[in-house]
Amino acid sequence: MVLKDKHIVLGITGSIAAYKAASLARLLIKAGAEVQIVITPSGKEFITPVTLSALTGKPVVSEFFTANDGTWHSHVDLGQWADLMLIAPATAATLAKMANGIADNMLITSYLSMKAPVIIAPAMDLDMFAHPSTTQNIELLRSYGNIVVEPAAGELASRLTGKGRMEEPEKIMAVVENFFTRQGSLSKKKVLITAGPTYERIDPVRFIGNYSSGKMGFALAEECARRGAEVTLVTGPVSLKTNHPGITRIDVESAAEMYNVSIKAFLSMDAAILCAAVADFRPAEQYAEKVKRSGDMLNISLVPNKDIAASLGKMKKANQLLVGFALETNDEETNALKKIIKKNLDFIVLNSLNDAGAGFKYETNKITILNRNGERKDFALKTKKEVASDIIDETFP
Ligand code: PMT
């Protein structure tokens, strides 16, 4: 039993999906876990503590004190006791409070005191889920190292159809089991990850750049750290945040800066996964002052940047792994295979701008992994977090 003797705090909030939390509690217990439920006051409007305590064999915790005898329920003790906190369903309000540290109920104080990793399964109406504030809160929670089980699309309690319904208990269970199976599997490993775009300066106000958001690279860094690796994340300019203690983040701007930091860091690494969209060229001249508009054409000459992947490929020792990405628009496989050889990579992750939902900026990606023997593995369109997990499984089988 994967969850044998694992202590799980199951947080339940005020959503119609709270009824699914009962099945989830049962699945966790059947898999060997000891489950302590913490429910918000509005959660109790949707499912009764009696049902839940009957399933777990433990009184449900909801208030800071038991009203009749004044017993204090220690959120700090729960934080120490748990091997995992699972919040399912998590409403938009709870996500917002978690993201911003608004500790006004037992569930949020337990979350803030939590020493263990946290998995969150949001549930809400489609428009609430699509709202920029929810998107931002989920991004913040991910950056704190929390794992988010994306809601599914389908018919919602409101009778509207869209993305927002809590994922089914069996699927959440698979994430929990997966979590415990892989946890710590990369301890003692050191991994270098490059992410984001590079900016190649033209003058003090302009640059040549690209559309990389950093999402794919950050997902890789977070997944490696979650599995226990010591991660060095070298990132170009992005708006993403990282707070996982296993990640050392180094911000750079240009390809030259990324090159210098990566070459130095790689010496002590077990593996490098190069996800950054590095500019191949930079302006030959950088103007000290803003270039003024004139009637004439402005020509900017470009000179090539050093290839970080190819340089690491030359330095690579037998015990080091080097993984590259290929972002292609045509002749995808041929171009990717050439890059494996040219850069001396162990394998390459191909993503094509011809696939809907793949590549820059999206929350999703669709990849093919190609190795030096020409073997290929195709993957379905998945969230970048899931894609990161597939890539790391391939890097450290
Ligand atoms: O950041 P997101 O918005 O989430 O988007 C993710 C992504 C599309 C940027 C990512 O999945 C991806 O494909 N990254 C590589 C993009 C790229 O520049 O590919 P390339 O085919 O030009 O480069 C091949 C490999 O060489 C890459 O591993 C690249 O990091 C590396 N390279 C390229 C040029 C250079 N000067 N140095 C390098 O190390």
Look at the structure and give the CATH class of the largest domain: Alpha Beta
How much of the sequence is in beta strands?
15-25%
CATH topology of the largest domain: Rossmann fold
User: Which residues form runs of ≥5 with pLDDT under 50?
Assistant: none
Instruction: Please identify the oligomeric state.
Output: single chain
Please, how many helices?
14
Give me the side-by-side strand order of the main sheet: 12-11-8-13-16-17-19-20
> Which bin fits the share of residues in helices?
25-40%
In words, what does this structure look like?
The protein is an alpha/beta fold and 397 residues long. The chain has 2 domains: 7-182, Rossmann fold; 190-395, 3-Layer(aba) Sandwich (Rossmann fold), CATH 3.40.50. The protein is built from 14 helices and 21 strands. It has helices spanning 18-30, 43-46, 49-56, 75-81, 92-100, 106-113, 126-130, 132-143, 169-182, 215-226, 255-266, 308-315, 332-343, 384-395; strands spanning 7-12, 34-39, 84-90, 118-122, 147-148, 152-155, 161-165, 190-195, 200-203, 206-208, 230-235, 247-251, 271-274, 281-283, 302-304, 321-328, 347-352, 364-365, 367-371, 376-378, 382-383. An 8-stranded mixed beta sheet has the order 12-11-8-13-16-17-19-20, with helices on both faces. Strand 9 and strand 10 (206-208) form a beta hairpin. The chain binds ligand PMT. Residues 194, 196, 212-217, 255, 274-278, 280, 305, 307-309, 324-327, 339, 351, 359-361 line the site of ligand PMT.
